[in-house]
Amino acid sequence: MSSPESVHDAVLVSSASGPALGSLGVVSLVNIVHPAPSSGSVSACISLPHPSMNADFAAAVQILIHAGAVNVPIPFAAMPVSQPQYPHPAKPWTVGDGITSALRTSAFPPLINMILYTSWYRIFPIVLRNAGSSPTHSVQRIGSYSSTESLPPFEPPSIVLLVALVGAITVARREQVIGQETEPALRIDD
Amino acid sequence: MTAVNYLTFSTILFLLAIGGVLLNSQNLFILLMSIELMLLAVNMNFLVFSVLLDDMMGQLLALFILAVAAADSAMGLAILVTTYRTRGTMAVEYATGMKG
Amino acid sequence: MTELGFGSRLPYGSTISPECIPIPSSIIILMIDSTHEGDTYWSYPISLTCPVIGIMVPLSQWREEPIISPACGAQTNTCDDIFQSSILLRSILRAPLSAEHFQCTEMAVTESPFFALAATLGGMFPRCASDLVTISVAPERSSLCLHPSSGCTSRDVRPSEATVKYSLLGGTSSSILVHGFPWLYGPPGGEVQPWGILNGIVESKMQNSAGISIAPVRIMAGIVFKPSLVPYHQWTPDVYEGSPTPVVAFPPVTSKVAASGLATRIFNLLSPLSGEWHLLPEILAILSTILGNLIAIAQKSMKRMLAYPPISQIGYITIGLIAGNPSGYASMLTYTLFHIFVNLGALARIALFSSRTGTDSIRDCAGSCGQDPLLALRPTLSPSPLGGFPPLSGPFGKPYSSWCGRQAGLYPLVPIGPLTSVISIYHHSKIIKLLMGERGGRKLATPRTINKRIPSLSSPHTPESLIELGTMPRVVASTTLGLTMNPVTTTARDNIPNQIFAHTATILMDFGEMSSE
């Protein structure tokens, strides 16, 4: 989809400010209840530029999985553990925190430098796997890739999701004591 | 170039999330959310390169990273809920009982 | 790319069939668990049978040439088979211990064999990882299955804290690791095969750009968490101390072995990118071997102390990895086998010892030799196999690893082996002296009444029989593996294909030409 450069930039700025502000809210807000919806807004807003990048499938998957399946349970789990009656005061930064923050901020200019001065024009696709012109065509191509060429990397995440499902239930459920067969009569004291 | 803008944005997101992990002194949930933010930034990188090259593999990789992020968050949430049940608090300063 | 029909995949089924064995067994275990109430003892024999069958597949397919499967692009060779067999061996050795534990504690955790099988499958998966997509998915595959297996064992404060640290910090390190992969995908032009990536970098003349140089740094920073190299090692002692003793070793050791296999693939890919790539792993290997031995001296808890020797052992394994030649990989494989047997044996013996003393504090075990000499002999034998007494494994494994380092020109790493052996021998002699001579320890409880939870098995040899049964092969292996090291090393070295190194050499020459232009 072709659009004038200024409109494209305006779309980028408006759709990038949502996630940027939301992520600032996640890492700096004090009460646990507030970062949770910020995280959800990050996931939702970050998929806005995707259709303009011709990544419609990724946008749909992002909304459904990340915003829907990942970020929705987080507020539900955060609600019971928040303690509004004891507003947790923000702890003052220690020297270590200051050093870490300085290191993190100082990592920013070299990374931006690297991005700005890389010659992106030299990159050309070596293997022509055309993304396809229409959304349905791209989804079809992704489906065919994941079931033929990329089958070994595609199957493990499915098993991982199954294990995560069973694991989350096992870890978080109430403890059960097995079997009534260990009755007091069978407890032997030598 | 648009690729530069998007890559800069994902770098900012990644560094903010790293800060959330390292400088978090309040709550273990913030740690989990920061991990999700980092994986979002990685996704953005893959998609930018996929668009730049008009290639399908980037979107496929982004899908796998997303599945991994979902599984990670499910496990992390379950473990945090168990921790809250045993300890009664989610504050980071109480998660340092074992040291050395 | 032409599409491949289903029929053409069948002739290559033998390449991936070892991974196909844990999948149906884990599904059978899940089905048994969901259809039966209460504890289901069938899951333990199934979780033992599956790795036994799995380990026979690569042994029966012992071959010289690597098999290439164009359907999935997997190129596997005997080096990978040995790694895979070590993961399966790990799973076999784990089964009796955890069965014993879950019976004793009466926890209805039938899912534990399922997680163990899933983690085994995840650890086997890097064998198939020959392209960027699979390499980026593989680390998560094993580590995400290890989080529930360490989290489901107990509901106390310490295990949950250990699991929190392991899973959240593991998630962070995986995110950092994965953040390096887009820069290996995009700038080289969208190729996902390793040689295509390197060719793409050469053709787009980006081998000196900052973006390509930072990618290996990120990948290495992310991957050193999983084998618990210093300074990312803190999760290992916490997991050792927090989890119940019989089941504690499964997540850390599997994580280390799987990460070693994956690191082999990744370093093969990254080594032509920068001439100084091995500087960071060298420093981490030195720090791990030294600090792993030094910090162990200051520990007061037996279990926490046992976490540090594996950290130093992974430093030796990393030396073999950095060496990058066939001898280096052979030393890595041999040391990995030692590592598995020794660690599991040590923990099994400590489990037996702790069940009688009721504590895991080292101080409380003083003088136990006078009460039960045979019992005190067990922890004596446990940490010393890698300490350095022949015919145990240590004096054969460490010099070989140092020799490979010297051959590859890694001179700072060479004196580390003898130095750390001296430290570990000193430390273990202190513990032996404490066990043998001093007073002030706890009185040993009589067997089988230690925690008043007796499993209702009718055999008179319970509850320690399964742990003892599992300990016996470990004792034999860890004490005599040093004698059998030479055939193991020779087999490993001769079966690592040289084409990996030949191809890397070609790419390195291209890089050199490009840089000199």
Descriptive notes:
The complex is a heterotrimer of chains A (190), B (100) and C (517). The radius of gyration of chain A is 24 Å and the shape is globular. Chain A has 8 helices and no strands. Chain A is mostly helical and 190 residues long. In chain A, helix 1 (5-28) packs antiparallel against helix 2 (35-46) and helix 2 (35-46) runs antiparallel to helix 3. Chain A has 2 domains: 1-94, Up-down Bundle (Four Helix Bundle (Hemerythrin (Met), subunit A)); 132-174, no CATH class. Chain B is mainly α. Chain B has one domain (2-94): Helix Hairpins. Chain B starts with a helix and ends in a 13-residue tail after the last helix. Chain C has 517 residues and is mainly alpha-helical. Chain C is 68% helix and 1% strand. A two-stranded antiparallel sheet of chain C has the order 1-2. In chain C, helix 6 runs antiparallel to helix 13 (250-270) and helix 7 (157-179) packs antiparallel against helix 10 (210-223). At the A-B interface, helix 1, helix 2, helix 3, helix 4 and helix 5 of A face helix 1, helix 2 and helix 3 of B.
Short key terms for the protein model shown above:
heterotrimer, B: 100 residues, mainly alpha, Helix Hairpins, 3 helices, 78% helix, elongated, C: 517 residues, two-stranded antiparallel sheet, 23 helices, 68% helix, 1% strand, disordered N terminus
Strand and helix layout:
The complex is a heterotrimer of chains A (190), B (100) and C (517).
Chain A: H1 5-28, H2 35-46, H3 56-70, H4 73-81, H5 95-106, H6 108-117, H7 135-147, H8 151-172
Chain B: H1 2-22, H2 28-53, H3 57-87
Helix pairs in contact in B: 1-2, 2-3
Chain C: H1 13-20, H2 22-35, H3 43-60, E1 67-69, E2 74-76, H4 78-105, H5 111-124, H6 132-151, H7 157-179, H8 182-185, H9 194-203, H10 210-223, H11 235-242, H12 245-248, H13 250-270, H14 279-297, H15 302-323, H16 326-357, H17 368-371, H18 373-381, H19 394-407, H20 416-436, H21 465-480, H22 485-495, H23 499-516
Antiparallel strand pairs in C: 1-2
Helix pairs in contact in C: 2-3, 2-5, 3-4, 3-5, 4-5, 4-13, 4-16, 4-21, 5-6, 5-13, 6-7, 6-13, 7-10, 7-11, 9-23, 11-15, 13-15, 13-16, 14-15, 14-20, 15-16, 15-19, 16-18, 16-19, 16-21, 16-22, 18-20, 19-20
